[in-house]
Design brief:
Elements (H helix, E strand, L loop, with lengths): L34 H8 L4 H8 L3 H9 L1 H11 L2 E3 L13 H17 L2 E6 L11 E5 L2 E5 L3 E6 L10 E6 L11 E6 L4 E7 L4 E9 L14 E6 L9 E8 L2 E8 L7 E6 L5 E5 L8 E8 L3 E8 L9 E8 H6 L3 E3 L9 E4 L7 E7 L18 E3 L6 E8 L5 E6 H13 L5 E3 L1 H8 L11 E8 L2 E7 L11 E7 L2 H9 L9 E2 L12 E6 L11 E4 L3 E8 L4 E10 L9
Parallel strand pairs: 14-18, 19-24
Antiparallel strand pairs: 1-21, 2-32, 3-4, 4-5, 5-6, 7-8, 8-9, 9-10, 11-12, 12-13, 13-14, 15-16, 16-17, 17-19, 20-22, 22-23, 25-26, 26-27, 27-29, 28-29, 30-31, 31-32
Helix pairs in contact: 4-5
Length: 574
């Protein structure tokens, strides 16, 4: 009954009702355990075990459904959430379990009812010069320019969070445009990472700063920077584009040469110690490249690879593979100089493409590190549990081919590699026919809208911005948001109608799209004022949808608009 616990490996087995031996006197019979002890056990169980416990006896059922702490623990997992840190020492009041539980119920009710207000302009000012780069993680939105970052904590009426802004001067001030450096944040770890080119060959430096003040991070590598240098043997100045990602103690940097003249470099560090965990490049074939990457739970990274002979009319091979960072760390770090030889736990194969390859993108939910205490920028009463329902979105762009958009749930990856990793084996290959068709999402969705503009993820949700390409001036093109919820528990509740709110959600099985994970979807017609923002990019927070619009390079200033999730029983303009 208690086998499926989260901490099974570190917890001794607990015999709740030991049978007396024949030699014992009746006075030595065990005394029934107190309810509080049972509750402590329930708080260690996952949702599947808790459901099983409800069926054991009436006492267990009563304890689970009447104890507020246990109910909160249960509903957190049902919402793909985990409890947030204490707010002690912040500008926000401390929250007890009852208050957090109440907020969680309102949060779930608002998502169920799709209760959004807005759009409202985000007063993110003054914007830094040449502000072209921005990022939203958790509740923190940062806009980066050539001299500083302007940051804001987005408000949340449901979670009791007020808006707050601050500015960070950064060390990349000699870069005329923010597009010339890479940016990543983790509010939970108070971490801001800025990657810049050092000017010769492949020479990069990553500044590890506090998100709160922009000073060297106190727990980062010595001097608050980590560096990488690869000498090509000549002094040509390359133009690099950077993709920086943070996952716990891992920091990844993918450097892509702007004109494609040399191979990409992927470096993954332990940003606390400064150790290089993994370095990947291809010294033999500049056409073989790591196109994209995303961190996964359990010390894994998912890589998107392009394998190309470079010969005219030869097919381009694409694949995604799962690399084991724990194994790389145990070896003291890995340097891989041939992309085709990357060791893997499993590889997901794609069909061959005959058209000109234009790119591959992999993205997953931005994860927050662990922190026992809240801060001004990390103060949510509950936060997404990315390990519970993480889904990666893989997109392949080939000239003359329909765009492939694929959903790869971590549960599928975990299923394929669990036995191999336990046995110390690796190398399973999964052919396209065994996973691709079932994971594909058609670009044309049922309804009047057709063009996929932009997408964003925040566990367990994906939002896609569409508009109707069949209409145009003088008629405004209607815009829609397609929301996908990968929370299997919410999908099952929706299917069983366990809600008093008329549902606007539909099961994945009701779509014409094949998808290999249980979930649900819904659509939102955007308000009329949003039609001017159809060419913008969309960002997704825990309960905010943000539209970033404008292009400073052509004289159009950057503007941010937000829609906010609110209690459907008390809808007010926020």
């Amino acid at each position: 009954m208690f086998a499926n616990t989260r901490r099974q490996s570190t917890r001794p087995s607990l015999h709740l009702f030991p049978q007396p031996s024949p030699s014992r006197h009746m006075s030595e019979m065990p005394v029934p355990l107190a309810d509080e002890l049972f509750n402590l056990v329930f708080l260690e169980l996952d949702i599947v075990s808790l459901v099983a416990c409800k069926r054991v006896c009436k006492r267990f059922l009563h304890l689970i459904e009447s104890t507020e702490r246990v109910q909160y623990h249960f509903e957190l997992q049902a919402a793909c959430m985990k409890d947030g840190p204490s707010r002690s020492g912040t500008d926000l009041p401390e929250l007890d379990t009852a208050t957090r539980f109440g907020m969680l119920k309102v949060y779930r009710r608002a998502w169920e009812a799709l209760s959004w207000t807005g759009p409202f302009t985000i007063p993110l000012s003054p914007l830094p010069p040449h502000a072209e780069k921005y990022v939203l993680v958790g509740d923190v939105l940062c806009a980066a320019g050539s001299k500083y970052l302007q940051c804001t904590r987005l408000p949340s009426p449901i979670r009791g969070i007020e808006e707050r802004q601050w500015r960070i001067d950064h060390p990349c001030e000699d870069k005329p445009r923010s597009s010339e450096y890479g940016l990543a944040i983790d509010p939970a770890q108070d971490l801001l990472a800025l990657a810049e080119d050092q000017g010769r060959g492949a020479s990069f430096k990553v500044h590890l700063l506090t998100l709160s003040a922009g000073v060297p991070h106190p727990t980062s590598a010595p001097s608050g920077t980590i560096s990488y240098t690869y000498d090509y043997g000549y002094s040509y100045i390359f133009r690099w584009r950077f993709d920086v990602q943070i996952h716990g103690s891992y920091l990844g940097l993918l450097a892509d040469e702007h004109y494609g003249g040399v191979n990409n470099h992927l470096i993954i560090w332990d940003w606390v110690s400064g150790q290089v965990i993994c370095e990947i490049r291809d010294d033999d074939n500049g056409f073989n490249t790591v196109q994209s990457f995303t961190f996964l739970p359990k010390d894994l990274v998912l890589l998107g690879l392009r394998l190309d002979s470079g010969l005219e009319d030869s097919p381009c091979r694409v694949k995604s593979l799962v690399h084991d960072l724990a194994a790389a760390r145990s070896l003291g770090g890995q340097t891989i100089t041939q992309v085709d030889d990357i060791p893997y736990l499993c590889v997901f194969e794609f069909p061959s493409y005959t058209g000109q390859f234009q790119g591959m993108d992999i993205q997953s939910t931005s994860s927050l590190g662990q922190s026992p205490r809240a801060s001004t920028w990390y103060c949510s009463p509950f936060i997404p549990d990315t390990e519970s329902q993480q889904v990666s979105l893989i997109q392949v762009f080939v000239e003359g081919e329909p765009q492939e958009s694929l959903f790869l749930p971590f549960s599928i990856i975990s299923h394929h590699i669990s036995s191999y990793r336990t046995e110390g084996r690796q190398g399973i290959r999964i052919p396209w026919d065994a996973w691709g068709p079932a994971a594909s999402l058609k670009l044309r969705h049922d309804g009047p809208f057709a063009m996929w503009r932009s997408e964003a993820m925040c566990c367990p949700h994906l939002v896609i911005l569409f508009d109707d390409t069949q209409r145009g001036p003088p008629h405004p093109r209607p815009q829609h948001l397609l929301l996908k919820d990968f929370n299997t528990y919410a999908a099952r509740r929706n299917r069983a109608n366990h809600t008093d709110i008329p549902s606007q959600w539909h099961s994945f099985s009701e779509q014409t799209v094949l998808i290999n994970v249980e979930g649900r979807w819904a659509t939102l017609l955007l308000p009329q004022p949003m039609i001017d923002y159809m060419d913008g990019e969309i960002l997704l927070g825990q309960d905010s949808i943000v539209f970033a619009v404008g292009n400073p390079r052509i004289g159009s200033p950057l503007t941010f608009m937000r829609m906010t999730l609110v209690d459907p029983e008390n809808v007010e303009e926020n």
